[in-house]
Amino acid sequence: MAWDEPSRFLLLCCVAFTLFGVSQFVKSYNLRAKLAHIPTVGHPDWLSSYLTVFRYMRDPIGICQEGYTKFQGRPYKIPTMNGWQVVISDNTMIDEFRKFPDEMLSIREGVEHFLHFSYTVSPDLLRNPYHIGVVRNALTRNIPACYADLYDEITMAVKDQIPLETDWVEVYAFRIIVDILARSSNRILVGYPLCRNTDYLDLAKAFANTVIKNARSLHMFPEILHPIVGQIFSARRRSLRRIMKHLKPILEERIQMHNKYGKDWPEKPNDYLSWLLDDPHAQDWQRFSMPDLSMRMLHANFASIHTTSTFTHILYQLAAHPDLLQPLRVEKYGWTKVAMKEMHFMDSFMKEASRLTGISLSLLAVSCTNFSFSDGTTVPAGTVICLGSFSTHHDEEIYPSSEKFEPSRFLDKRAREGEGHRHGMAVPATDWLLFGSGRHACPGRFFAVTALKTLLAHIILNYDVKMKDDGGVPPSTVFAGNVAPNVTAKVMFRKREM
What we know:
The protein has helices at 5-34, 49-58, 60-71, 91-99, 107-115, 117-120, 123-127, 130-141, 143-161, 173-189, 198-219, 226-232, 236-261, 272-278, 290-305, 308-320, 325-329, 337-341, 344-357, 389-393, 409-414, 445-462; strands at 76-80, 83-88, 105-106, 169-172, 362-367, 371-372, 378-379, 384-387, 463-466, 477-479, 482-484, 490-495. The chain is of the alpha+beta class. Strand 6 and strand 7 (378-379) form a beta hairpin.
């Protein structure tokens, strides 16, 4: 019997589905056998575990809290759409986790596992991630020098996005925060005037979203098909061509000046792009490579724009507690990096808002070798390990009345002798995991906190803020295991009444 095209297509689909099922079964069976000694939340068997997978997609916090309560600090594993993950929440284990060398525990492999960077961004960024050192060192070191530009862009962006009216105006909070932070962060990334270019900013915002969406699509396919489907479900080449149209003339001019004068030349911009060009850790083929530099700029936008979620949580708490506007306003303000650092009550308010409504898990890593924690728990090579952020942040022994919003919680902790610095929002600890932990904590956290604090300070000094009908914090959005702020909620603003 002759096969027509629809029949052949159907046959191919059946074969592909069968191969996918078999490969997933073999992979899951082998890994589950290696992790059998670690207790499971939900169903432990291969087929029934998918019931827990679907539950995790809808209720990641509930799954993590169940494991945290049931196993009382011991590691536990959960099944997810992209495999088994081992969750640790015990302070001692987190302290050990942050000290493990890269040869034992790879954050780079964790990023690849979760976001498939080789396909969604670029494999070159993982092979030589010298941009991380640029963020950790050059960016952090230059925050005071660049602060005036950051503040200038924040004030202009807020003015354009939030009307300064005497009557209350409703705005979609998440949307305007994305626009404000994309524009203000790019003032430090590429400088003026490109930081205000509409097409460039639209690209930066779109790329940040497509990386996550494309990674989710790849999770649906077995690894053997990633080289094929990775090309289909990736917009990186299109995004790269688009950003290079904006960056090419800027890069050509800077490279020309660098070749003529060296690293120091007249009126050289002090921004992330210049720091990338100056960094000695770029390989020979990467140095002055427009595609490579452009892709690292896209990655920087991906990282910076995702601080939007953190600030949205903070703004919702402020709007739900307008009585805190005045206490926040009485802190001594001055538009410098040093002044921002001294705003301890604001720092406490922001950190508490992030603690209460933040992420469920953080800092994924993959074990490179077999090793054991001090309690005897063995972890085989290839295991995905993550930190139970939400459970730690809601532990009653660590944070009494953990479900209550206490804006001065960390201000009070600062008052204790010898703990003035430890409780800052940008300072990672075994009980504060928003930015990860240890050597692998978010390298841009000091810049992120400075930018968010400056934005919040500017808003509270110029606006009154509240939720409509004196409502509370909008419920978070949960999708595919991720907990994010409500993206459709509105916040009301008006010109501050003196």
